[in-house]
Specification:
Number of strands: 9
Order of helices and strands: EEEHEHEHEHEEHHHEH
Helix content: 25-40%
Length: 231
Amino acid sequence: MICAAMLAGGIGSRLKRDKPKQFVKINHKPILVHSVETFLNVKEFDKIIVSSPKEFINMTKDLMNNYFPQNDKIVVIEGGSTRNETILNSIQYMKDQNCEKDSILVTHDASRIFVSEKLIEESIKGSLEVGAASAVIPATDVIFESKKEGQLTDIPLRKYLFHAQTPQSFNIDNFLKIYEDLSEDEITLLDEAMMLFYLRGANVKLFNGDQGNFKITRPFDITLAETIFKK
């Protein structure tokens, strides 16, 4: 079984909106719809799992029904209070469907609306090869590290630095095995799925992402996205 977990968020405070980011329209369609459309074009998926904060589940279901009526490949579930809790909820959904051993979950930030089918397929391929995979792009700026507020404490070599993107994919049984072995302190470090594999030295395949696969986070990103659609 291969599923996609579409990670939708809460209120988009950095977008200065009073509703979740996934409902904000760009080029006349909600952000979430753009991403789901692309994932539906990838034939490998058995299910597209759309996670939503509890208070917006009905709105999210209505949105999916409006744009993808009677599409039984799409399911809306409740997300968690953290990214990894949301991923665990998606894995639990797969287990509840009696998925076979070594099933793959592809996670994606719904706000990366310009994700390509090629990136999704590369992500699936990488996770089938080594167990986990993530899209990345090279860091183009010098990165300053500051472990003391307002002070420069280190300058890592840029040639070794990459920005993580989604889609990210992994074997769900490997994920659960490692997660159950983590301490509470380690779990608090998990701000994204690949960190879990890193903490136990598991192999993660990094493949070339795309500069255009940016995340809609701030008002400028909406302006940029609208400009791209007009080209």
